Each structure stands twice: as C-alpha cells, then as structure tokens.
Amino acid sequence: MVNQAARRFRAAAAALGRLPRLGLHGQVVVVGGVAFSVEGLRTWLHLGARLEVQTPDGAAVAGEVVALRDGLATALAFGPLDGIGPGQPVALAPPACLAVDESWLGRVLDPLGRPLDGRGPLRPGQAPRPLRATPPPAGRRARLGPRLDLGVRVLDAFATCRRGQRLGLFAASGVGKSTLLAMLAADADCDVAVLGLVGERGRELREFLEDDLGPEGLARSVVVCATSDSPALLRREAAYAAMTVAEHFAAQGKQVLLLMDSVTRFAMALREIGLAAGEPPATRGYTPGVFAELPRLLERAGPREEGNPGAVTGLFTVLVEGDDHDEPVADAVRGILDGHVVLDRRIGEGGRYPAVDVLRSLSRTVPGCLSEAERALMLRARRILALQAEMADLVRLGAYRAGTDPAVDEALRLGPRIEAVLAQGKGERGTVEEAFAALARAMEAPDGA
C-alpha cells in the first residue's frame, strides 16, 4: 500500500514538472538610444526593479527600471541593446545582491559578481547582501576609532586619518593618483582593502594590478571594476558593489580600507541615468538626483553600529577637470567627507611624489588623534611651508636678501628639508609615529645637516 502511494506521488510530481511554468511577463514597446520602454508589468514594477529581456537568439539582457510614467516603465540595460526590439518578452528578475565570501580576497570581479581575472567562478557566500543599503543609524553608530597608519608620510603627518574616517583625494588626471592608491592598498594598516574602479580605462587594469598593486597588495584586496566602455548602470553599480563588499567584511569586525576611483565617474554615470530617465539637467548638466545619491553612497562608509569593532575607512578620489576644485561634484563631496587631500600637478612636475599640496589638505579629525607635541610640530611645519611658498617669487627674482627677516630665513632653510621628508617612493612604508619623528629630525637638524 505504501509503495503504491509512493508511485502515485512520483507520477504526480513528474506530471506537474511537465506543466508550463507561470510567470509575470511584459514586453518591450519602444527602444531608443540607451533606454527601452516596457508595458505589461505596471502593477509589479517600481524604481530600481530588475528586469530580464529575452533577445531573439535566446540570450537574456539584464536591465533596471529608472522611470515610470504614462503606464510605461523606462529601463536601462546592463549591456548593449543589440537585438532588443519591440515585442521582446520582459520578465521580472531578483533584486540586486552580492553573496560575498572570504575566498574573494585576491580576486577581480565586475559589479554583477562575475570574475574578470580568468581564475574561474567566484564561490558565493551564505548570506547575500543588497547592493542598495542604508547607512547605520546615526544615533547608534560607533564613534571613530584610533588613528590609522596609512603608510604614506605626507598623509600620516599632515592629514592624519582615524579608523572609520572618510577622506577625499582631489586630483586632475596624471598627477600620480593611481600610484598613491596602490601605496595605500599595499601599506595601510588594515585587514582588508577593497578597490572600486569606476570607469577605469580597460588597458590600465592589469597595469594597476600587476605593477602598482602587486601580488602582496592584491592578496588582501577585493577589486571591483567597471571599465569606461561599460554602460552607465554598470559603472554606477561598481561603486555600490565595492561598498557592499566592504560592508560585508566590516560586519565581521574587520578593519576595511575602501579605495574608490572615482566618485566623479560615479556621478557622471548617475547623470547619464538621470537624463535618460527624464530628469532636467541642473548644475553643469548634472541632474538633481546626482547630488541626492552622493551622500547615500558616501555615508555608508564609516564605523558600524555600537558594539561592532569593524569599520570602513573610505578614501574616495575626485577628478577635478581643469584643476577646478570648485566644480559641482568636488564641492558636494568635500562637504560630505571628513577631510580632503589635494594633489597638485605643479608639485608632481617638480619631482616630489606623492604630489600632495599640504597647505590645501586637511583632516577634520586631527584634533582627536594627535598629541599636543605632534599637533604643534605639524602646525609649525605648515607655517614654514606657507611662508616658503609666499616668498618663493621674491627669492627667484633676487628681491630678498638673507638676514632681513629671521622667520623667512628659517622657512627658506627648513622648507626644503620638510619637502624631502614628504617625498616617498613605492615600497617605503611607515607609521604615524615614524612620520612625525622624521619631520622633527628635519626641522631640528643644524645648518649643513
């Protein structure tokens, strides 16, 4: 009797398996430019909903709803729109998530979790995390931790960083930004480094990984990359994916260094998406949604909730076009972050790398992480460099005579020594204590030393 019932159950299960599966489907009605419109799923769609479009050759193209109006949903695709036309079937897809795993360390992936390093598939973790998440509640968020050794003397001495802090690196192209990021990824005192490369040149990825980052830096890093030829959705998603990976490791109590290059390209991707969705262009063509989305991303970095020792220390690069540090994205990001570091082309052209302009850089958390002696030393060094810069033109013209002003004489004597301390090559690692010790030696050395 039992065997007979089991046979009937197996037969019923097989019959059910042969029935066509039911699902929610719509269809493409308009395709144009970088967007397409969908009808038939109005009740179940919302902003940010994921879709899959079936092409005639049987492939599936992922998309995301960016606008809803007049009974139609406007969507952008994560890949080329080749083969997509009116009448193509559209189905709902699961929300965007990443199942991060410890085995991802040392790997390079795209924002959708697909490997880019040719080393086989990535092992998924146990608990998928949504790419769009809210920051920890402000009232329950832990305070910043102790100071962090970044391993770069000029930053450790003049823009000292604390665990969970967020710093902006403001630079034009070609000023040594990628090399500085690689130094931080390899030398900073952290458990895990996460690199989000948003809109990178395709040819530069391997050069950055093999020449700048190196095997040791890559071994403790996860690299998320979307190249400049990727659709705007994929470039935007690279920033969210990198933040999600960083949050995963921070939730385990680890100290995570998140390096994102660059927030400007993230904003440009948001601008493309906003314009395609029908948002009006505002400041320099950026849509209002760009400036609403920037704090939603950047506020996710920082300490976790009280009781979790993990933190995401974020360093976000900002490309300043034409060395204009007051352009809209730079201005908005500077107001959100906890400090800014300015890389100056003229300093790099003078041969000093990292080309950090000390006088235009600051960390807002310095008062809470330096001793009185260190703070006094740093302020004295700033005054000396400021006076040296102020007198530089007069000295070149021969209009200043030594002995006229003791303060100027001191600045002209000690300024070059401080600049020598700030110069640092790849492979040179140090601590905050060592940076201040080197600065003190340079400023206390007798003439001729």
TrEMBL record:
Protein name per its UniProtKB record: FliI/YscN family ATPase
PROSITE patterns assigned to the protein according to its UniProt record, in alphabetical order: ATPASE_ALPHA_BETA
Reaction catalysis annotation: ATP + H2O + cellular proteinSide 1 = ADP + phosphate + cellular proteinSide 2
Keywords from the UniProt entry: ATP-binding, Cytoplasm, Nucleotide-binding, Protein transport, Translocase, Transport
Localization terms from the record: Cytoplasm
Domain annotation AAA+ ATPase: ranges: 163-348
CDD domains: ATPase_flagellum-secretory_path_III
PANTHER family to which the protein is assigned, alphabetical: ATP SYNTHASE (PTHR15184), SPI-1 TYPE 3 SECRETION SYSTEM ATPASE (PTHR15184:SF9)
SUPFAM superfamilies: P-loop containing nucleoside triphosphate hydrolases (SSF52540)
Presence of the UniProt keyword Transit peptide in the record: no
Region (Disordered): 115-142
Keyword Cytoplasm: yes
Any Pfam family hit: ATP-synt_ab_N
